[in-house]
Amino acid sequence: MNGMRMLFIAAAVSALLALTASAAGRFRVDLESGAAFSGYNDIRIPGKGGTLFSLSRQLQSDPVPFVRIRTEYRLGQRHMVSLLAAPLRVKARGRLDCDLRYLNDTFSSGTDLSALYRFDSYRATYRWEALQREKITLGLGFTAKIRDASISLEGGGRKAEKKNTGFVPIVNFHLTWHPGLKWKAIFEGDALAAPQGRAEDVFCGLSRQITDRLWLKAGYRILEGGADNDEVYTFSLFHYAVIGASIKL
Fold first, then answer.
1. The whole model's pTM is what?
2. Which fold has domain 3-248?
3. pLDDT tens across the length of the chain (249 residues)
4. Segments making up each domain of the chain, as ranges
5. What residues contact residue 213 under an 8 Å CB cut-off, 6+ apart?
6. Which helix H or strand E contains 66, and what residues bound it?
């Protein structure tokens, strides 16, 4: 999948749903942008026999811009469904002071390397708001996530790429606190850990109401997870500086 293409598709679906929504105020579009910073990004492919290396410590990874779009539709007072498109591309460059075995290729020590880490996430979520109070809302639900990822490495006339597409079930949660004065604090995300690996995508920030239909927000997002098996060993952490808008249609 192409990340930008999926963003355009998500935007088109948002517009279509908005036009066909049967009740005003049930449909919402949430947009996020900003910069993503690499924390650790450790890779060994194959998981058994490959060379462990880091795209963030041994190679140089610069901050990258990102865009995420989520569409949300309320089915009733306590129930909602949403769709999310969240592509991510991180490039890295540098040299290793040892031979690197990656997939079926070996990159010699001192070779100029360029890498592309791609992690595109597409999710469908159902959430039930178990607690609704004047100042606090708590929701719990389930997210079906499609992970479309790849890690490519190029240098010395060689290129190797590992692709992975799969389904991941995740627990969804959402907590908001309304202290008043048109402000609210948000703590929300998707997270799950299992013996096969883990995944966390969590946002914490503040939102300010501008009009009856527009909220602006800013905050911090953490994206972390990975897997450890015979095929791959990959664990990564990304920090997001987030600005965004939530529009009720």
1. 0.89
2. Lipocalin (2.40.128)
3. 455 555 555 555 555 555 454 455 689 999 999 999 999 999 999 999 999 999 999 999 999 999 999 999 998 889 999 999 999 999 999 999 999 999 989 999 999 999 999 999 999 999 999 998 889 999 999 999 999 999 999 999 999 999 999 999 999 999 999 988 899 999 999 999 988 889 999 999 999 999 999 999 999 999 999 999 999 999 999 999 999 999 998
4. 3-248
5. 247, 248, 249
6. strand 64-74
